[in-house]
Design brief:
Helix content is about 15%, strand content about 30%. It is α+β, with helices and mostly antiparallel strands.
């Protein structure tokens, strides 16, 4: 039986049997409640953040400061949503003489 008898929810876009805590890169979209345009406005083709939008961006960045396993590759804030490309990766113990505490697998993804 479908959740809520198909009245209030759409089917999940999540990949079946995927562990979303697994090391990978994820494309995230976060939408405001009722899709209200409260994060800012577009002026002359540029996003101008509202006070609330500034708080949202500050908290978004803070997530990556306090969580070593997250790496932000890029993001964009729009009036009623934000998109981001986020990588989840395991932190290693740094015992091999490396300086930044992360595995170097040779990828250049524009990160840190």
């Amino acid at each position: 039986m479908e959740k809520y008898q198909n009245k209030y929810r759409i089917q999940s876009h999540r990949k079946p049997n995927w562990d979303y805590s697994a090391e990978a890169m994820y494309f995230l979209t976060i939408v405001t409640q009722h899709r209200e345009c409260i994060l800012g406005t577009i002026v002359n083709h540029e996003m101008v953040l509202s006070d609330f939008g500034k708080i949202v961006e500050m908290e978004w960045f803070k997530s990556f400061e306090i969580r070593d396993e997250l790496l932000l590759h890029t993001f964009v804030t729009m009036p009623n949503h934000l998109h981001g490309i986020v990588e989840i990766r395991e932190k290693w113990d740094g015992m091999d003489g490396g300086t930044d505490g992360w595995w170097d697998d040779g990828r250049d993804c524009g990160g840190r």
